[in-house]
Fold this protein.
Amino acid sequence: MTVSTTPTLEGQPIQQYLGIVTGEVIVGANLFRDLFANIRDIVGGRSGSYERILSDARKQAIEELQAECGALGGNAVVGVDLDYEVIGDTGSMLMVSASGTAVKV
């Protein structure tokens, strides 16, 4: 299934618009990962553990988006937007959401 941030797909005319589809993933922060990320912030460098969590959450949100599109009978999602939000009283949760328009091409 094609997933694109663009509103159209070059060479693939949209035959039918099926509606907005979404995928959301909420992940919790881990105390040890937070501790090592804080140390990494002090000494410099990238936080590989957080990057992996973000990557996994983004992939899961897109997979949910694709599943919702497929359930509507679509074969592509256009105009995809990815959002990242820190939520919870202490900012201990991260939400990754993907939204777009399911279409048949």
